[in-house]
Amino acid sequence: MGDVLPTSHPGDTGSSWKGNPDDRLSNLPDDILLDIVERLEIPDAARTSILSRRWKQIPAMLSEIGITVRFFEPAHDISDLTSDDIVRANATMLEATRSILERRSATDLYTIHSMYLQFYLGDESTIPIGQTVANAMATQIICSAEFTILTKVQVECTDADLLTQGGQFMSFFDACPYAFGGLTRLCLGYIKLGESEFLKVFSICNGLEHLHLYRCDMTGSSLLEIEHPQIYKLEIIGCGFEKVHLKWLPKLTVLSFVYWTSRHDPFSLGCVPLLQNVCITNVGLSLQNMVKLSQLLGKASSISELHLNFKCERIWVKPESVKQFSMPFHKLRSVNLFNISEECDLNWTMFILEGAPNLEELCIMVQDHFCEMLWGVYRQLHGFSEEKKDKGVVEWETSSGFKHTSLAVLRIVGFQAQDKFVRYIKSVMEAAVNLKEIYLHEKPGCRRCKRRVRKTSTYPMTWKRKRSIRREIRKGMCSPVSIHFRKEMLSGNQ
User: Could you read off the pLDDT of 87-127 as tens digits, one per residue?
Assistant: First the structure.
């Protein structure tokens, strides 16, 4: 808080700085003081209430409340946390939650627009937090409420750990159904539940709008079915489900599915009439079948943005003919293909252009992220494919005479002054008759593998080299497209 806040004591009717007869800060209107306090983290905001009677009421007016156990847990690594550490952290978390929520009365005119609570899953220490939130939901107007529930075991989490933590979660859930019934966002990880338990969670959390599942699994059945009337954003990351069926999600707009171990398609779509943004990320393992997008997303007719991330490994998407692919993607406007390995050709991506007649922007990122990739014997141990390029992908040829009238922007991140890049750009220019802009970005890197990236880079750095590349691309082409070189990194999903 520094020198900004007055040095007063609880019970003062008018606080003042030492040596200063006027406490001008405390005399400010409520909305100004509230704006000051809302810029602080919750522990500091709560402490302002002890300054004076004037300040005591301000934290009770907060419209955005974010209380995280990270403020109170020990400073050491999560893998070293003990059960006692979690109990103490949750106890302090509970004290802060009560301090903020129970100070508000039912007659308060101040709405809580957003409430975010992050805490650890524990046997008994978690339940009072949920009960405090349930009481606040019964007496206050809360527009948005979120639980992010952490678990003690995350690193090297065994199946037994998942089951134990799943049991702890259901004990907490059963003890606080009204709190879960009022949630709009739920973030769960490292738990294993039965099919009936998942169904119970979806049923009780009937106001849920955003569901985030991370490293979750299910006992017994290998199929997780999701039906929910309100969820508009669904994220399933690194979960052990054999398959997920999105049976009925009438408001689902954003779907993110990251990593799967099944040999077959990771999910299937039922009723998802509003699905617009789809992001799929996977490391293509040698035993996994290639995915046909027409089958995976064929029942979604409203998709406008598609993001596919290959994590610098095997291409796991199978190119398809225009007849198969075009049906679900006639509304597709933007496609992003991230982390295509440098070993792979790019011509296979033309099938997306052929099957999406209204596509306006195509972005391709080509890189080998050396510090995250496995090498040598470790690749076989983890089921990685030695061949990153499939024959069906490499031998894909664009349909003769194909023309695309909507594509306006082509963006290549990780451009290299190599024949395969030049050939690909010329193929797109020849097909996309209304192409206006081509942006060629330098290969992205990170601090850990930056030196190796620099050694393998052939990105044109000088004005003379850039002019030469432009001439090479435009040779034999009559397109008036503008070609831009961009050295700065492109932000986004990598």
Answer: 888 888 888 888 788 777 655 667 888 999 999 998 788 99
Instruction: Kindly report the length of the chain.
Output: 494
Kindly state the tokens that stand for 246: 């999105």
Between helix 83-101 and helix 127-139 the angle, nearest 10°, is 10
- 168 to 121, 154, 191, 197, 218: CA distances (angstroms): 7, 15, 9, 12, 15
User: Which H/E stretch holds residue 280?
Assistant: strand 277-281
CA distances (Å), 247 to each of 164, 214, 254, 436, in order?
29, 20, 15, 41
Burial track 395-422 (b if 16+ CB lie within 10 A, e otherwise) = ebebeeeeebebbebbbbbbbbbeeebb
| DSSP secondary structure code for residue 1 in this structure | -
Query: Residue 201 corresponds to which tokens in the numbers above?
Result: 């969670």
CA distances from 159 to 189, 383, 394 (A): 13, 20, 39
Buried b (16+ CB within 10 A) or exposed e, 196-214: ebbebbbebbebbbbbbbb
Distance CA 210, CA 254 (A): 9
Write the single-letter amino acid at 415. Answer: F
User: How is residue 57 written in tokens?
Assistant: 């009421």
**Residue 293, CB half-sphere, CA atoms under 13 Å: how many?**
29
- For residue 231 the two structure tokens come to 């969820």
* pLDDT tens digits, one per residue of 60-69: 677 788 888 8
The first and second tokens of residue 213, run together, are: 């599942």
SS3 state of residue 80 = helix
Residue 116 near residue 66 (C-beta atoms within 8 A): yes
User: The tokens of 188 are what?
Assistant: 């769960």
Residue 340: strand, helix, or coil: strand
Alpha-carbon dihedral sign for residues 224, 229, 231, 232: positive
- The closest alpha carbon to 372, from 420, 309, 457, 318, belongs to 309
Cα–Cα dist 57/50, whole Å: 10
Question: Which residues, 6+ apart, have CB-to-CB distance to 124 below 8 Å?
Answer: none
| pLDDT tens readout for residues 332-360 | 999 999 999 988 999 999 999 999 999 99
pTM to 2 decimals?
A: 0.86
